[in-house]
């Protein structure tokens, strides 16, 4: 398969990483439930935690008030935390009532909102016990969404990693695509892979538990989200092989991601060009139009979602922006290395966060656009800096060719808004 990328003379893969371990400004991993409960249509997420966690989910998921949710909170009272109640018996009763009321549930995730030593409850043991009680109709798994142990997107990683050990074994040579995508984007991806003659394609997470997703020594997997380090490790332990590639953001990233799969499965150059030529052309045209506002501007990434490195590559190479600093909660070479190879040298690459120090660097640099969390956006806007909420880049369809123009438009919008406001003064 022909290489479709022209790497920069010097990329960032060997750039020394500024490692920071201080105060962080990030959401906790419970927020992943907000998109996962829509993706897995026969799953339910039962958060075992405090009223604070219940209020977080209620507030964060308020936009879905008109749809029946597939998540809830089992609230721990003071007597539970004090050990005065049998928390396991209480949890068993809650689960039994839930499954009786919602017979459509096939997968039940027990999600810890705090470490087990805080909530005084071993959810791993509880999941095993409840699986024995309710199998084969319901599979019960557990993972931690604790803000102490996980950052924003790590909730999805922990959830998918909990599923890998119970996937059936297969010896078939199959492609497994890993990471939750909106259904419309997933359908576009599957159509491209089908056009290349690659199939069957398995998905993790699948929309239904009965979907034939399995893993084994002949499984080849490709990630569509750059925050799945634990899931990557769990699949490798099951014998699967990772296809390292840039992530499918923009024309270049999508083409490189598809090309890595095409090479692995022996797709000819002619077939690859025939399938990708038209959507690539549409993507380039959409990016060019949306990025007129971005060309020549500088951008600064605070660590939030682990999407920062592939997005910086997209903005630098396809939108003409200059990254000043690219911060990410974690940097995993097996996942982020291909995008770092393509990111032109120059920006500071930072891992972790010491928020006060990073704010000082951002203020000194005065970037044209700052990508950050909700808690930092308003203060920086008040100081005259244009910002984009990092969380929007997770909730908005941004992968693959047909969303490439929308992705560029998300970054252009704050700059256009500031230009309009300044012109009105």
TrEMBL record:
E.C. numbers: 1.3.7.7
Cofactor: [4Fe-4S] cluster
Residues given in the record as [4Fe-4S] cluster binding sites: 28, 53, 114
Molecular-function GO terms, alphabetical: 4 iron, 4 sulfur cluster binding; ATP binding; metal ion binding; oxidoreductase activity, acting on iron-sulfur proteins as donors; oxidoreductase activity, acting on the CH-CH group of donors, iron-sulfur protein as acceptor
Any Pfam family: Oxidored_nitro
Cofactor remark from the record: Binds 1 [4Fe-4S] cluster per heterodimer. The cluster is bound at the heterodimer interface by residues from both subunits.
InterPro entries hit by this protein: LIPOR_BchN/ChlN, Nase/OxRdtase_comp1, Protochl_reductN
GO biological process, one term: photosynthesis, dark reaction
Domain Nitrogenase/oxidoreductase component: 28-387
Biological pathway: Porphyrin-containing compound metabolism; bacteriochlorophyll biosynthesis (light-independent)
Catalytic reaction equation(s): chlorophyllide a + oxidized 2[4Fe-4S]-[ferredoxin] + 2 ADP + 2 phosphate = protochlorophyllide a + reduced 2[4Fe-4S]-[ferredoxin] + 2 ATP + 2 H2O
Keywords: 4Fe-4S, ATP-binding, Bacteriochlorophyll biosynthesis, Chlorophyll biosynthesis, Iron, Iron-sulfur, Metal-binding, Nucleotide-binding, Oxidoreductase, Photosynthesis
Subunit composition and interactions: Protochlorophyllide reductase is composed of three subunits; BchL, BchN and BchB. Forms a heterotetramer of two BchB and two BchN subunits.
Function text: Component of the dark-operative protochlorophyllide reductase (DPOR) that uses Mg-ATP and reduced ferredoxin to reduce ring D of protochlorophyllide (Pchlide) to form chlorophyllide a (Chlide). This reaction is light-independent. The NB-protein (BchN-BchB) is the catalytic component of the complex.
Stated family: Belongs to the BchN/ChlN family.
Protein name: Light-independent protochlorophyllide reductase subunit N
Naturally occurring in which organism (per UniProt): Jannaschia pohangensis
Lineage of source species: Bacteria, Pseudomonadati, Pseudomonadota, Alphaproteobacteria, Rhodobacterales
């Amino acid at each position: 398969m022909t290489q479709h990328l022209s790497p920069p003379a010097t990329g960032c893969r060997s750039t020394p990483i500024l490692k920071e371990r201080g105060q962080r400004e990030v959401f906790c991993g419970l927020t992943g439930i907000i998109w996962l409960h829509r993706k897995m249509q026969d799953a339910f997420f039962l958060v075992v935690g405090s009223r604070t966690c219940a209020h977080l989910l209620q507030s964060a998921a308020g936009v879905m008030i008109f749809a029946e949710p597939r998540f809830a909170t089992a609230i721990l009272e003071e007597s539970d935390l004090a050990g005065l109640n049998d928390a396991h018996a209480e949890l068993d009763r809650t689960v039994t009532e839930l499954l009786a009321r919602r017979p459509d549930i096939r997968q039940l995730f027990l999600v810890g909102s705090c470490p087990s030593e805080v909530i005084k409850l071993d959810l791993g043991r509880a999941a095993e016990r409840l699986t024995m009680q309710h199998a084969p109709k319901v599979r019960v798994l557990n993972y931690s969404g604790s803000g102490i142990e996980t950052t924003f997107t790590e909730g999805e990683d922990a959830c998918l990693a909990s599923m890998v050990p119970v996937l059936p074994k297969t010896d078939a040579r199959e492609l497994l695509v890993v990471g939750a995508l909106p259904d419309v984007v997933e359908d576009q991806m599957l159509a491209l892979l089908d056009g290349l003659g690659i199939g069957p394609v398995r998905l993790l997470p699948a929309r239904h538990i009965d979907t034939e997703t399995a893993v084994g020594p002949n499984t080849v997997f490709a990630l569509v989200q750059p925050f799945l380090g634990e899931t990557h490790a769990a699949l490798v332990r099951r014998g699967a092989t990772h296809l390292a590639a840039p992530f499918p953001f923009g024309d270049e990233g999508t083409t490189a991601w598809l090309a890595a799969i095409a090479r692995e499965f022996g797709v000819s150059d002619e077939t690859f060009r025939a399938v990708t030529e038209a959507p690539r052309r549409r993507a380039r045209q959409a990016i060019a139009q949306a990025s007129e506002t971005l060309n020549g501007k500088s951008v600064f990434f605070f660590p939030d979602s682990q999407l920062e490195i592939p997005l910086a590559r997209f903005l630098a190479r396809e939108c003409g922006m200059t990254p000043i600093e690219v911060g990410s909660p974690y940097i995993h070479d097996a996942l982020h290395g291909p995008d770092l190879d393509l990111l032109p040298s120059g920006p500071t690459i930072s891992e972790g966060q010491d928020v006060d120090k990073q704010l000082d660097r951002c203020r000194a640099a005065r970037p044209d656009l700052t990508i950050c969390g909700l808690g930092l956006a308003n203060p920086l806007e008040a100081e005259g800096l244009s910002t984009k909420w990092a969380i929007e880049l997770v909730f908005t369809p941004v992968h693959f060719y047909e969303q490439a123009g929308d992705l560029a438009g998300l970054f252009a919008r704050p700059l256009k808004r500031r230009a309009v406001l300044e012109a009105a003064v």
